[in-house]
Known about the structure:
This protein has 371 residues and is α/β, with parallel strands linked by helices. The chain has helices at 20-28, 47-52, 61-67, 79-82, 101-109, 131-149, 178-189, 201-211, 222-229, 252-255, 306-327, 329-335, 337-340, 353-359, 366-370, and strands at residues 2-5, 32-36, 56-58, 70-72, 90-93, 113-116, 170-174, 193-198, 215-219, 234-237, 263-266, 287-290, 293-296, 343-346, 349-350.
Amino acid sequence: MIVGLPKEIKDNEYRVGLTPAGVRALADGRHRVLVEQSAGEGSGFEDSLYQKAGGVILNSADEVWAQADMIVKVKEPIAPEYGRMREGQLLFTYLHLAPDRELTKQLLDRKITGIAYETITDRRGSLPLLTPMSEVAGRMAIQVGAHYLEKMSGGRGILLGGVPGVPAARVVIIGGGVVGTNAAKIAVGMGAHVTIIDNNLDRLRELDDIFLSKISTLASSAYMIHDAISEADLIVGAVLVPGAAAPRLVTRTMLKDVPNGAVIVDVAVDQGGCIETTHPTTHSNPTFYVEGVLHYCVANMPGAVPRTSTFALTNATLPFALKLANKGFLEAIRSDPHLREGVNTYAGRCTYEAVAVSQGLDYTPLAQLTQ
Ligand SMILES: NC(=O)c1ccc[n+]([C@@H]2O[C@H](COP(=O)([O-])OP(=O)(O)OC[C@H]3O[C@@H](n4cnc5c(N)ncnc54)[C@H](O)[C@@H]3O)[C@@H](O)[C@H]2O)c1
């Protein structure tokens, strides 16, 4: 198969769809990998590394898209990329089609086989290609929170771990899933007092087993959340209700009782946020205050650490990219039901029910088209 690796062109996107190790694995499988010049620059991979790994460097995105059977990317295509997509081409990337009518139309009109990272499943029914970015964002939440707690950054001037004779900061994490657990690991490691709040008691039991006596767990309720955040220095929003907007668990009224200069990192901002006063911010302008509490609500936190994020993402995506290249699309989806779940568009039809429903399109089960 000819595999194409274009440079990401979305604003402030420095990740790349394949590392040199990924190119090497594909090249070892006798696939030809076409890499757009400087595609990996933002993640610290020079063209020469891709060349050494067996890739061929091409001067322009147009050349890569024109020749490749399968394009491997990170972000969904944006307007300048639409015209480059060719009928029947495989597109393996994050797509997030549900809210994106124009991109969906483009993929259908151009009969692109669109495989979305975010809808590929695993044996437990979770979404393995979303997990790495939640791991990055969860760990970053504490790093970022510790930074903004410093006086010069606008916080209340508290060291997360305290020192002998001075108590450590109180960190309250709302949501004990992937983001919450990774945040807790770093916060515990830095010596903070950590409380995790979740409405899933079994999850709280697991967390209690993982962290032993190093954290406190609380069953989620408005009362307990209000009580916990009233003494918090750092609050991390890490709630997810799959397929729905995040519930607003911390209200503006509750914020009046949070200490001045405390910091909120609402990681769940990409689903609307679990703090009433959240609105999405960017890396260039990441924070704002409400009721004297500093809010950090960057919707694409992993973008700040593109090198780590590229490795983390491609560790999870490469096995699927290899399967697609080695077996071809039809055999690959027949042999792997989890990969099949990723197919959102095929042969001009929408093959992912939730996307079809959200856009009022006809849904066609993939099996009907691939028999
Ligand atoms: N901002 C970013 O850059 C970024 C990056 C990665 C992930 N995220 C977002 O972070 C959020 C969390 O992701 P995740 O992978 O940890 O999800 P997850 O499904 O692993 O965990 C979510 C947790 O929230 C809990 N929960 C649900 N309702 C609750 C309630 N009412 N009270 C308390 N807990 C509740 C669930 O039981 C679950 O344990 C998602 O919105 C995700 O999209 C944002």
